[in-house]
Design brief:
Length: about 160
């Protein structure tokens, strides 16, 4: 896509997909450190790939849905972008959890208990920042970059 043809929706969709993928890799790294090298290698790769795809898709969907919150002028625009980033993070986790569980739900059938991990996905990403301040700073930087890029594309 030519640079002049990019829209704020493209920017936010791309950047939130990137955030979803990067956060998944951060979780994966954290699990690998906690499990140790032998057990981390034994984890099923298919499941990891499925959740990576789910988180990228969840991030892309949240960026697409919330693109109107990014790239606005002034202090209010920055606040709107920050709120958009928080909501996008929660939507990405919610959608990523739902898509990640979808093959299991289709295979075993829907059960009301499946709703618990799906809903937990909405808060798992924001809660992960509590124990990882550098992850939070990285997310803030990417969120600010998303806002500034969308602002540039909008011509605001």
């Amino acid at each position: 896509m030519a640079p002049h043809a990019r829209t704020a929706r493209f920017v936010t969709t791309f950047m939130m997909a990137l955030v979803g993928g990067l956060l998944f890799f951060a979780f994966l790294y954290e699990d690998a450190v906690a499990l140790g090298p032998e057990r981390a290698v034994a984890e099923p790769r298919g499941l990891q790939i499925r959740y990576l795809i789910a988180m990228v898709l969840g991030g892309a969907l949240s960026g697409w849905l919330l693109s109107g919150l990014y790239g606005r002028r002034g202090i209010g625009g920055y606040l709107l972008g920050f709120v958009g980033s928080i909501v996008a993070l929660m939507v990405a986790g919610l959608f990523g959890s739902a898509v990640g569980l979808l093959p299991d739900i289709l295979r075993q059938g829907w059960d009301a208990s499946d709703l618990i991990p799906i809903l937990f996905g909405a808060v798992a990403l924001p809660l992960s920042f509590a124990g990882a301040p550098l992850l939070f700073v990285g997310w803030l930087v990417i969120s600010l970059a998303t806002h500034l890029w969308a602002k540039r594309v909008r011509g605001a």
